[in-house]
Write a structure and sequence with these properties.
The protein is built from 13 helices and nine strands. It has 377 residues and is of the alpha/beta class. It is globular.
């Protein structure tokens, strides 16, 4: 069962399924994509990080990465991705084919109408290549979440999120029923424009994805027949159970006939194995500081090597880096192949966390080469 989004023009019919499933290129077992946290290293600026994002998006498009997502975070000096829609609009100006999306927008932080308007605008900027990935966590600490929402009532439970999701979907499809208080409210750009005199509407509508790091969103995505993205990069122990739950819960829908799940994977390839270890140590130190209430810029490898880790911190670093696939390009390729086999993921979305933008760019180049992905003409 496929649902045709909007009103096709010129005889072109676009299904949601067409805009979700990717195609594996080269020798990759599944489509490969990019997750960008817009990381800011010590001695660098947010402008530097955003220039790296442009370079990465252009590289991803040229080398055949399927989609490029930006994740919403707040109050973290080393992560400059507090406004995914703004960043995606910027990247849309530098790309033509690669899918652009949120990985994700934290829906409880926002009014559903605002998100429908933002992503309707993005869809108008980049027709047919915008994804709307949604999470229910705040993407920050509780105090910052309260400031974002202007309330001390933080509820990401079973009641609020599905209701917010349903409201957002109604705004995107412009189909509130008669008698609903929002029946005469329209997200613009959106389908209402097709009903105006002389109106023509794009056949595209951003596909909705549910994101998660536990079973809640996995089950909800399955029940609703939506694609699912799991945060393996920071919740590896829950990956297989969550994907199993998603597949077991899946019901065919107007969006998808069969389950489609991607997983976010921390992966860093370098020309030298030793350099990979240095880079992931710095990224791990950044996580140590974040988890202990001392968020900051991503430290340099030299700072990480000189840092005096406590036994507890060292244990955390070893546990964290055990789930980061790193090394030479061949080692990373082998690790990704093994992970895909173990999880059955339909797509791998790679996030390369390192101090320098040049290191991150080089990592995606090396992985593309290792899989024989397309090279620019």
């Amino acid at each position: 069962m496929h649902r045709v989004r909007g009103r096709p023009t010129g005889g072109t019919h676009v299904t949601a399924d067409d805009e979700i499933r990717g195609t594996a290129l080269g020798s990759a077992p599944v489509p490969l994509s990019v997750l960008d946290l817009v990381t800011v290293g010590a001695g660098r600026t947010a402008s530097d990080a955003l220039r790296t994002s442009v370079e990465l998006a252009k590289l991803g498009e040229a080398r055949g990465y399927h989609r490029y997502w930006v994740a919403e975070h707040h109050s973290m000096p080393g992560v400059a991705s507090s406004s995914p829609a703004v960043i995606l609009a910027h990247l849309a100006a530098y790309t033509e084919r690669i899918r652009l999306g949120s990985g994700g927008v934290m829906l409880p932080n926002h009014a559903p109408l605002v998100i429908a308007e933002q992503f309707g605008t993005l869809e108008a900027m980049a027709p047919g290549r915008v994804d709307l990935g949604l999470g229910r966590a705040p993407g920050t600490d509780g105090a910052t979440a309260a400031a974002l929402r202007r309330t001390d009532r933080l509820n990401e439970g079973a009641d609020d999120f599905p209701q917010q999701l349903a409201e957002l979907t109604r705004f995107l499809d412009d189909d509130f029923p008669d008698g609903h208080p929002y029946r005469r409210i329209h997200a613009v750009p959106g389908p209402v424009q097709a009903t105006s005199p002389g109106g023509v509407q794009s056949p595209h509508r951003p596909p909705l994805w549910l994101l998660g790091s536990s079973g809640f969103s996995a089950r909800l995505a399955g029940v609703l027949g939506l694609p699912f993205a799991f945060a393996h990069h920071f919740s590896a122990q829950n990956t297989v159970p969550a994907l199993d739950l998603y597949r077991e819960s899946f019901r065919p829908s107007e969006v998808l006939d069969a389950p489609y799940a991607l997983i976010g994977v921390a992966a860093l390839a370098t020309d030298d194995e030793k350099e990979a270890r240095r880079q992931v140590l710095a990224a791990a130190l950044n996580m140590v500081r974040l988890r202990t209430g001392r968020p900051g810029l991503v430290p340099t490898p030299e700072e990480a090597e000189a840092y005096d880790f406590s036994p507890m911190e060292r244990e955390f670093v070893e546990s964290w880096n055990a789930n980061v696939i790193h090394g030479t390009a061949d080692e990373v390729r082998a690790g990704l192949d093994d992970l895909q086999k173990r999880t059955g993921a339909d797509e791998l979305m790679l996030t390369a966390n390192a101090h320098g933008g040049d290191v991150r760019v080089r990592s995606y180049e090396l992985i593309a080469d290792a899989y024989g992905l397309p090279t620019p003409a």
